[in-house]
Design brief:
seven-stranded parallel β-sheet; 9 helices; two-stranded parallel sheet
């Protein structure tokens, strides 16, 4: 077992939806948490008590700055969550995608290697596996995720870096400020608007945030405690349930008690639309799903409704 009070964790992307929930949990169970932020990072979702316990390190984008942070922290493990997610990129998005999803991570692991920090938990995406292939990127975002994994291959071979990559499906839960499906459906329902969608025949895999956080805790134990850990491992956090998008809308209506005016078929499917989620990944060892879809949706909808009352 990890001695939490003496175990230092350095996190990137800690102000995003997954990162925020993960850091709150890490603090709750008494890990020493260090957070890398940008100059304009929003820390308002952390309580004053959490901010008092967080060690915050501002990153200016340079290797020198990252090297100073890693040298000062000497983390037992690094959790790299920071990324830029764009479903369908425009030409002007290319530089930002490469800088966020490839360059930042490479600067991070270079600093780790130079400062003898060897344990990294990386985050990938199920979208690296279009048509259930071993590698077939759905979009440029997924391709940049794979590109960074390929860079990690060099560091595991040349610098003894130990890497566990966790690949995520769609995540959801309370406090999600992203314009994702649940929030969109709720806004359309209460506003009595019309939502144009595709035919809705695609299946979606949704994982509740508390289950996602539990999986990261399992991986902290794994990367810390197994001497026989291979240099590169990859696992997936997947729900036991998948649901057709059109059926999900019906379920949402039943749970929230509101009608959503959806025009199915009003929009074309996206380029390389994922009709069936990837199902060939190995589940995180020692982890099991605690929230089924209805339980997770009820918790999330309670949070959305509470926020709308304020």
């Amino acid at each position: 077992m990890v001695n939490k009070s003496h175990y230092s964790i350095l996190v990137t992307g800690g102000t995003g939806f997954v990162g925020l929930h993960l850091i709150k949990k890490l603090l709750q169970v008494d890990f020493r948490v260090h957070l890398i932020t940008r100059i304009n990072s929003n820390l308002k979702q952390f309580s004053e008590h959490e901010l008092d316990r967080l060690n915050i390190h501002e990153f200016n984008g340079s290797y020198v700055c990252m090297d100073e942070i890693v040298k000062e922290v000497k983390p037992d493990v690094v959790i790299h969550l920071a990324s830029l997610y764009i479903t369908e990129h425009q030409s002007e998005d290319i530089s930002a995608l490469i800088n966020s999803n490839i360059q930042l991570g490479t600067i991070l692991v270079e600093a780790m290697a130079k400062n003898n920090c060897f344990k990294l938990i990386n985050v990938g995406t199920s979208w690296q596996h279009y048509n259930n292939d071993s590698y077939n990127p759905v979009n440029l975002y997924a391709a940049t995720k794979q590109a960074f994994e390929d860079i990690l291959h060099y560091y595991t071979e040349a610098h003894s870096l130990k890497v566990i990559t966790i690949k995520l499906f769609d995540t959801y839960g309370p406090g999600d400020n992203r314009r994702k499906l649940l929030t969109l459906l709720y806004d359309v329902a209460i506003g009595k608007k019309t939502l144009n969608m595709s035919k809705g025949e695609q299946y979606i895999n949704l994982v509740y945030i508390d289950d996602v956080v539990d999986a990261f805790l399992c991986m902290i134990e794994r990367i810390n405690g197994q001497k026989e850990l291979s240099s590169r491992e990859s696992f997936v956090i997947s729900s036991e349930e998948v649901i057709r998008l059109s059926d999900f809308v019906k379920l949402f209506e039943e749970l929230v008690g509101l009608k959503v005016n959806v025009q199915f078929g009003a929009k074309e499917y996206r380029l390389r639309e994922v009709m069936l989620p990837w199902n060939n990944g190995e589940c995180v060892p020692g982890w099991s799903q605690k929230y089924n879809l209805i339980q997770g949706l009820n918790e999330t909808l309670k949070s959305i409704q509470k926020e709308n009352i304020k």
